[in-house]
Amino acid sequence: MAFGKPDLKNASREDKLEFMNIHKIDFIDLIAEVNVEEGMEANYNDDYIDNLVIQWKDVISEMEKLKNLRKACFTRKTFSNVPNIWKKVLEIEKYCLSKEIDFKCLITTSRVYSKAKQHEWSQFFV
């Protein structure tokens, strides 16, 4: 439950986009392109992908277009096996600090729901 609204996990794409528009939320991937070995296309593990990135998204350029941006978060808390992803996240965090944009790494809510995760997210977006 976010912003007092029901879970959108099984909602339609249109309902999710409406929620995003109403609450002025957007998402961007950090990675634009990876080159994986044949047969490994379904391996989404970050520690596998980290060294195979061909192109990163220019997240900071996209953020610069958002003059009213107040908060940014990254849905990962640990970076021990992903040094390249960690480097990009640190660049984004540094940019946010320079522009006085709240930045936080949050536990992903996509795998398993918990009240602790919900509380962390709710506190950040209040």
Describe the protein in words.
- The protein has 126 residues and is α+β, with helices and mostly antiparallel strands.
- The chain contains five helices and four strands.
- The protein has one domain.
- The chain has helices at residues 13-23, 46-49, 59-64, 83-98, 115-125, and strands at residues 31-34, 53-56, 71-74, 102-105.
- The strands form two sheets. It has a two-stranded antiparallel sheet with strand order 1-2.
- The radius of gyration is 16 Å and the shape is globular.
List keywords for this structure.
13% strand, two-stranded parallel sheet, alpha+beta, two-stranded antiparallel ribbon, 126 residues, single chain
In DSSP terms (H or I, runs of 4 or more residues), the helix count works out at 5
- Give me the secondary-structure category: alpha+beta
The share of residues in extended strands comes to: 5-15%
User: What is the global morphology?
Assistant: globular
> What is the helix fraction of residues, given as a range?
25-40%
- Number of beta strands: 4
Number of domains: 1
Give, in order, the helices and strands: HEHEHEHEH
Main sheet attributes: strand count, strand direction, barrel closure: 2 strands, antiparallel
Give a summary of the structure in a few sentences.
The protein is α+β, with helices and mostly antiparallel strands and 126 residues long.
Task: Please render the helix and strand layout as text.
Blueprint: H1 13-23, E1 31-34, H2 46-49, E2 53-56, H3 59-64, E3 71-74, H4 83-98, E4 102-105, H5 115-125
Parallel strand pairs: 3-4
Antiparallel strand pairs: 1-2
